[in-house]
Amino acid sequence: MTSRSTYHHGDLRQAVLAAALDVIAADGPGALSLRDLARRAGVSHAAPAHHFKDRTGLLTALAAQGYDLLAGALAAAPDLRERGVRYVCFALDHPAHFQVMFQPDLLRADDPDLLAAKERASAGLRAGIAELRDVPDPRTAGIAAWSLAHGFATLLLTHNVRDALGDRDPEEYFRALTGLLFTQQLPSERGE
Predict the structure, then answer these.
(1) What pLDDT shows up at residue 1?
(2) What is the pLDDT of residues 4-22, one digit of tens each?
(3) Cβ distance 98 to 153 under 8 Å?
(4) Are residues 97 and 3 in the same domain?
(5) Per-residue pLDDT at 111 exceeds 90
(6) Which of 8, 113, 169, 170 has a 20 to 30 Å separation from 92 between CA atoms?
(7) pLDDT tens digits along 45-63
(8) Are residues 104 and 180 in the same domain?
(9) Considering Cα of 175, then 179, then 182, then 188, what sign does the dihedral take?
(10) 3-class SS at 149?
């Protein structure tokens, strides 16, 4: 029997994921080490491997968690523009998840949990596109909407639009961007 008070951990998986998010937020995904995360969680260096197998497994679990959070954020939006706003807010609220989710070289692309979570998030975007009328190519419209939201979120996270934004609210700024770039009216703008 061990005398270490940290031997038993109530939810090691969640503790390791939370510690990984802290490391990624501070130093990026390249700084992750299962051994360091085990130390932070107060468990043996082999314990995280029980849940994640390796670093790639851990990053894949973080990405799946991120896509699930994104899907939830998108589902609550009333229209495509607000889905874009929610996407930007998700990136600002979950920057470590956002960093990992879109780096496929860090992930197990065939992981069933990851694939299911990505599909839920994609369905949220497609639902916003489906609301638009007279869109000749919904797939291209979806890529355009995703590109705008993802690009703006990335610029915010990397502080590349700090001067342009000034003290303006990022959500309102994003709404203004969509108004400048897209002439297709959303159902809510047509009074529907």
Answers:
(1) 36
(2) 444 445 688 888 899 999 9
(3) yes
(4) no
(5) yes
(6) 113
(7) 788 888 898 999 999 999 9
(8) yes
(9) positive
(10) helix
Residues 124 and 154 sit within 8 Å (Cβ to Cβ) = no
What domain range is 5 assigned to? 1-52
Which own/partner pairs from 182-190 qualify as long-range (CB within 8 Å, at least 24 positions apart)? 184/132, 184/134, 184/135, 184/141, 186/79, 186/80, 186/81, 186/131, 186/132, 187/79, 187/131, 187/132, 187/133, 188/78, 188/79
What gap in Å lies between CA 163 and CA 145, rounded to an integer? 24
Decide if pLDDT at 186 tops 80.
no
Q: What is the model's pLDDT at position 5?
A: 40
pLDDT band at 3 (very low <50, low <70, confident <90, very high): very low
Return d(Cα 46, Cα 59) in angstroms, integer.
17
Neighbours of 174 (CB within 10 A): 22
Residue 189 lies in a domain: no
Asked whether residue 6 is assigned to any structural domain, the reply reads yes
Maximum separation of any 2 CA atoms in the chain, in Å: 69
41 pLDDT more than 70 = yes
In the chain, what is the straight-line distance between the N-terminal and C-terminal CA atoms, in Å?
67
Is residue 144 classed exposed, middle or buried when 0-12, 13-18 and 19+ CB atoms within 10 A define those classes? Answer: middle
Q: Which residues contact 155 (CB under 8 A, 6 or more apart)?
A: 161
Q: Does residue 155 belong to any structural domain of this protein?
A: yes
CA dihedral 81, 182, 157, 56 (to 10 degrees): 80
The reply to whether 138 and 109 lie within a common domain is: yes
